[in-house]
Amino acid sequence: MNKKSPGFIRFFIYGVVLLMVIADVFYIPYLHRKLNNIKILDVESGSPVVLSPFSLKKETILLTSDFVDHFSKYKSPFNDGLTFNELIKKYIRNRWADHYGCMRGTREKKRIHEGIDLYVPENTPVYPLNDFGIVTEVNDNPHYMVKAKYTQPDGTVDSIKIEYGKTVRILYPEGIESVYTHLNDVFVTLGQEVNGNTEVGITGLTGNIRNSGKPSHLHMELRDAANSSFDPRNRLRFDQGSVSYFLKHLKIVNK
Ligand SMILES: [Zn+2]
Question: What is the 98 CA–ligand 1 centroid distance (Å)?
Answer without folding.
Answer: 7
